[in-house]
Design a protein that fits this description.
With 376 residues, the chain is α/β, with parallel strands linked by helices. The chain has 13 helices and 15 strands. The protein has a 7-stranded mixed beta sheet, sandwiched between helices. It has a 3-stranded antiparallel beta sheet with strand order 7-6-13, with no helix packed on it. Strand 4, helix 7 and strand 5 form a beta-alpha-beta unit.
């Protein structure tokens, strides 16, 4: 992977476009020359290639990861009058996708170590009055760490609900050797430009082994058509376009390599954080392989540390500052979901992408150590 003496001048996703510049130009020229720009040969080829990568039978390209959640729920008949369980510490896009289906999101707490949906919290929700009407749960593999699937599936089976995956941040992650996106009834993927597998704009996909479900998603993504101009069901316009599909086909071949590089950088971060008094490194559950879309640490002095690192020119960020159950758009209540609330004031994302140099990681730790000593 390329490096630079100015550690932060080569940023993701621009570096990714530079790496693939020739192939991307050829792919886009191919699409422009084809005269086919919506749901054509490039989309069909990407759907087939991504299905092969995952080991799923079906992939359906859609316009975004948020749309993918909405379309899965619509295709399952989960909408108005139903509820869907969602981890509270997650991107707002997850709850937005649920709400757009007509269903109501109900929030459950997370595990403190992995930031993923807590099986015990899901069980408690489903046993409570709030759990009445919950038909499904969207399991978010947050930051690229696989959720505790076996335990969550056990809870889902006991309560008779459907488990769905949000893999928007987890391309390349593995749960006991199985790619995420192959574990639940269906999975939503995002290919937003900053994702591990990134388009040049909004793009998404639904992955499933349920052929009938996939066919319903295909109909819904294009006005509910089975044949052109004839809508057999209520649908929307959520089509993956040919240009984005062509871009994704170029980048798919490099996905495993880029995820391995993210893991190498994460290992370097982990090693440097041993013994650090201010910062706790992310954990990885046994049997799981993290995709490290983000490298997220915990610290009791988050805001001060973030200001210190940003002052040193280091691009850090907070993913995410307000749990979903406290956001006005989703009801904004005073319910206490302890681990979600704790995470929101403690997490900090350190620089992470496959083009980051090891020298850049060293620079982060020089600044961390300076903060540690100043705080002594």
């Amino acid at each position: 992977m390329p490096s630079t003496t100015n550690h932060w001048s080569l940023l993701y996703p621009q570096a990714d476009q530079q790496r693939h510049a020739v192939a991307l130009t050829q792919a886009m020229q191919r699409v422009c020359a084809s005269g086919s720009y919506i749901l054509g040969a490039e989309v069909e080829a990407f759907e087939s290639e991504f299905a092969s990568y995952l080991g799923n039978n079906q992939v359906v390209g859609v316009a975004s990861g948020t749309d993918a959640i909405e379309l899965i729920l619509r295709a399952l008949g989960i909408g108005a009058g139903s509820k869907v369980a969602v981890p509270s510490f997650a991107p707002s896009a997850v709850a937005a996708g649920v709400a757009r289906s007509g269903a109501e999101p109900e929030f459950a707490d997370i595990e403190p170590g992995t930031f993923t949906l807590c099986p015990e919290a899901l069980d408690a929700l489903l046993c409570s009055p709030r759990g009445r009407g919950v038909k499904a749960a969207v399991v978010v593999h947050l930051y690229g760490h696989p959720a505790d699937w076996e335990s969550l599936q056990r809870v889902a089976d006991e309560h008779g609900i459907v488990l769905l995956e949000d893999c928007a941040q987890a391309h390349g992650a593995l749960w006991h050797g199985r790619p995420v996106g192959t574990l639940g009834r269906a999975a939503a993927f995002s290919f937003y430009p900053t994702k591990n597998l990134a388009a040049l704009g909004d793009a998404g996909a639904v992955a499933t082994n349920d052929a009938a479900l996939a066919e319903r998603v295909r109909e819904i993504r294009q006005y509910g058509w089975k044949q052109r101009y004839v809508s057999d069901r209520a649908g929307v316009n959520s089509r993956l376009d040919e240009l984005q599909a062509a871009v994704l086909r170029v980048k798919l071949g490099a996905l495993n390599e880029s995820v391995l590089q993210r893991r190498r950088l994460a290992a370097k971060y982990d090693a440097r954080l041993v013994g650090n008094r201010m910062v706790t490194a992310p954990m990885v559950r046994g049997g799981c392989e993290h995709a490290y879309h983000q490298y997220v640490v915990r610290t009791k002095r988050r805001d001060a540390l973030m200001q210190h690192l940003q002052g040193a020119g280091i691009p850090v960020a907070v993913h995410y500052p307000v749990p979903l159950h406290r956001q006005q758009a989703f009801g904004g209540n005073n319910e206490i979901l302890l681990e979600s609330d704790r995470a929101s004031v403690a997490v900090l994302s350190l620089p992470m992408h496959p083009y980051l140099s090891e020298e850049a990681v060293d620079a982060v730790f020089e600044s961390l150590n300076l903060f540690d000593h100043e705080g002594s």
